[in-house]
Amino acid sequence: MSAPDEIHSVAIETPEIAAARSRVRRRRSIALAIALALFAITFYTLTIVKMGPALFDRAL
């Protein structure tokens, strides 16, 4: 908790700063989406490889 005698500075956000933050946020979101997709593809691929050729040689 902050003490009542602390002075908080109010930073005014300019349009340039807002645009820069938006770009950084978008890049971070895209990077997280790519990382999640690669993670899912890795697990899918490892599952198929672990099952081996028996996956395609089964009775339907």
Overview of this protein structure:
With 60 residues, this protein is mostly helical. The N and C termini lie far apart (65 Å). The protein is built from one helix and no strands. It has a domain at 15-53. The chain has one helix spanning 15-51. The model has no long low-confidence stretch (mean pLDDT 85). Keywords: Membrane, Transmembrane, Transmembrane helix. The chain crosses the membrane at residues 30-49.
Short structural summary:
This protein has 60 residues and is an all-alpha fold. It has one helix spanning 15-51.
Structural class: mainly alpha
Oligomer: single chain
Total number of β-strand segments? 0
- Portion of residues in beta strands equals under 5%
How far the N terminus sits from the C terminus, by CA atoms, comes to: 65 Å
- CA radius of gyration is 25 Å
The secondary-structure element order is H
- pLDDT averaged over residues: 85
Number of helices: 1
List the main descriptive attributes of the protein structure presented here.
mainly alpha
Strands, helices and their partners?
Blueprint: H1 15-51
